Amino acid sequence: MKISYNLLKEFLPQLDKNPRELAEELSRKLAEVESVSKIGNDYILEIENKALTHRPDCFSHWGIAREISAFYKAKLESIPQRKMPPKSISVNKNLEINIQTSSCLRYIGGVLSVEVRKSPGWLQQFLKSMDLRPVNNVVDLTNYVMLKYGQPMHAYDADKLNIKNGKLKISVRQAKSTESLTTIDGKTHPLETSMMIIADHKKPIAIAGIMGGKETEITNKTSTIMLESANFEMYSIRKASSKLGIRTDASTRFEKGQDPALAAAGFKQTAALLKKHAGAQLISEIVDIYPRPRKQKTIILDTKRVKTFLGINLSLKQIVEYLNSLQLDVDEGSSLKNRQPLIKITIPTFRSDLSIEEDLLEEIARLYGFNNIKRDLPLRKISPTPLNKTIYFRRKIKNILRALGFNEIYNYSFTNEKVVSAAGLKAKNYLKLKNPLSRDHTLLRQSLVPGLLEKTAANLKYFDSFSLFEIGKHIIPSPTDKLPREIEHLALLKAAKELTPLRLYASLKGEIERLFRELNLDKFYFVPLNNNKGYPFPKDGRFHNNLSQVQLITAQNSTWGQLGIISPTILKNFGIQDAAVAAAEINLETLLKLSRDQKLYRPVYPHPEVKQDISIILNQKIGLDKLLEKIKESGGQLLKEAEIFDVFLDPQKMKKNEKSVAIHLTFQSPKGSLSHARVTELVGRIGKMIEKDLGGKVRR
Amino acid sequence: MNKQTINELNKRASRELEKLLDLDKLREWKRQYLGKKGLITQLIKQLPGITDNKRPEIGRQINQIKNDLKKAYDRKMSNLQNQPPKTHRQEPNNWFDLTAPGEKTNLGHLHPITQMRQYAEDIFTRMGFEIFEAREVDDDYHNFESLNMPPQHPARDIWDTFWTNQGLVLITHTSSMQNRILSTKEPPLRAVIVGRCFRNEATDARHEHTLHQIEGLLVDRGITLRHLIGVFKAFLDEFYQRDVSIKIQPSYFPFVEPGIEFLIDCTICRGKGTMNKKQCSTCGGSGWIELAGAGMIHPKVLKEAGIDPQKYSGFAWGFGLDRLVMMKYGIEDIRHFHSGDLRFIRQF
Question: What Gene3D superfamilies does the record tag this protein with (chain B) (predicted)?
Fold first, then answer.
């Protein structure tokens, strides 16, 4: 909001602060002044609106001047008493105003004869400095009064209004859904019953508090106007304004809750100025409908709270002075007598923002100066702050991944159907944005892999190989709850130009296993997929029918992740050429549940280890993680380690569906050296298990 | 046995000894010449067989040779033992430039916002705050209504809000968690909320629709505005590792009363407003940077969460991490954060 220094001075003739000093004090005590610029012989202060959202009274020069008078205890001129235009003897329009909606709090109307012409130079200049375009004297004066006092005004061309039985019948009512109105900006708006309008006896002439109709706007030919000074309920105005997508200087003021008392001053000032600058004469009675005049509130302030809530030491006298400077009446008589710290404060109607004790405490703190308040630290019992385990483990995971060479990516939570389907997914049951910023950001994501694939394509321009990860949420609409489920996931991706997809897969799998071991997971399996549903991994089946590259990470009988090679078709969709990509996505909530902070320690024995290798033939369908698990089971305590070191096919010696697996076995006893015979017995037991439980053969 | 054969044996033994390079071979040499069945030992054994008067002379000669070879052996032994192990012997033609850069390593990089977040979280943890995280999608009640913003409240326009088709909100601030925390934890409570927030505004070098916020919340008996200023300043001093100057401006958020805004002296120009005689681009020449919104928690917000504002008071603040990271490193474009560009990420 722009404020003219010269106009402020009209209200504060004794003010001796220059525009910059004033700007600084306003920033300290009211709202930030973003800039001060010189225009002609005036200075324009640009005040940030947001900090004034609760201060409708400050959306005018008058209101700002009132604040300044409180800062400096400077004398504030009152609104000048002006003479109303003379009442015409010859003509008398019969004006009737009818409020039919509770959202209209006050309506003042009057018909005037005017001579429309250009505004005087000073007014045109002033409006330009406020970023308003001068139109004609009538329109310009209504704007001037609004900027000066805060009361939005509107003038209608009265000759264009429909008369019924010699009466100009104006009503304020809710619109009918069949009605529409073309506003001054030339746009036609279909109206809804939730919108309040001003209408003559036939049709709408303005959207109340927001914008007037084109048909009745003031033109050079206008000779009679109906001047409106009204007040509307704030929520109703905001709702209509956001529905219609129209924001005007008037709606900005009304939706914050203007003081209905101001409507009278607004009417008077405008009419008087019209008399001076447009030769106006009143040709109707002034009709003022104010069904429920706003009453002044009173608030009881416990003055002890200045100390206990703000931490400021002030005497009662100082407190009363601050409040008085803001034109708040303080009834301290009884309090002083009884040495009671409670005082009763009467709130003027223009301060609708003051309704509770804390509001008054803010006024005191503001005038005292926030920067003058001393600092202090609260005391607290010595007890440990609870640890957020999710954050703790997530950090651990990030640090492990960093050590493994992964780079962390942040992608948006937004996605779109195109990207989702390019990754081989269906964007079914995704949360949709009602008001997306762009077509790329219409949905909330349910997989992190498409985003990583996009970044992969971009990074391959500069790097031949890299590892990426992201931790982010899948946002899944919940059929039962109102809120969607937000499930955090970890996505990993490796891309390389020089490696085969299988090598990349093996390397990513190794890193995932490493991560899981570092997190001390008890058990996890990688189970090959038997179908093509392994999104976002091979869709065309090219990679996963021969071996088992596409796998689900499962534990405790639940699937909580996927790992695999991204198929060439999907790579092509993302514009990835000449590079292999392997990726995984893991449910982080499950991973955290399975993680343990505690390492499992095994004693270090001095006795020698005995190593022996075995080589076996197995059905290809039997998973090697399963095999290792069974070997460890049957090897018992004495089997320290079992490690697969070779897997191959040998079509000449084996059946088509078989594979050969070679395993290093390491034995050690906690009690002493193991005899050769004992080791042979143990290996034999493992061999028997393989033959019996897994249907394999031990090669000799 | 004559003088000549003895001399030849001596020469051969010395020659071979000289060529020896490792300890095993040296021991073998000793066995061959000086051992129990060694050639020199055998000569000594043959001495009694010499009958002529040359025996004493030959005897002296052999003893002399034996002692010399023994000494030579000891010298060799000590030489070889002091010699560097095989792994450390340098090939004569294998020149290595010690000033050449070392081999490349492969360490990954964490996103700078992750790092900044951890840094800030750790300070708050040390100050006794429990860390919480915010949802991304929430309902109107938690993002607005429970924060003293009924439907159509004008303050809702302070944030440009993304809505889903179901009427849910992409949180505009981490204050969306206030009601949940206040209503589940008993005072005294100290909480910090971290989360991803959203603003429906077009992106450019300085504006992003996706932001990261840290919010603080403290409720206890007798908490005053003094405590708010003290705690936040204590955090800032620790965060920047210096005595930060702060300035307070009045501000408005419906969920606090009074509402304020913290400014700090510009970390780039140190509050001078100029850098190299030019206007500082970080603070726009004012010397101050708007850092955080804050205030005393509005009694309606406390009441809504079942806390009696007569008994308890508290404060809250919130600030964005993204801008802090930009200021710390002088990052010129906020869009780098979500670009996934490794040329950016690998610098942190």
Answer: Bira Bifunctional Protein, Domain 2
